[in-house]
């Protein structure tokens, strides 16, 4: 399992969410990240999910 980082920012630039989670690959991380965003109604805010090697898995501005 790899550790991925999910971060969400408000329109004012405040950090609303900064958490890590584990997934077996980038596709699973994308699915888990999307689900977490939907659960907290953050999918339309600026967010990113980054892989352990620094690649963006999810990004929305």
Automatic annotation (TrEMBL):
InterPro entries: YhzD. This is YhzD-like protein. Pfam families: YhzD. It comes from the Bacteria.
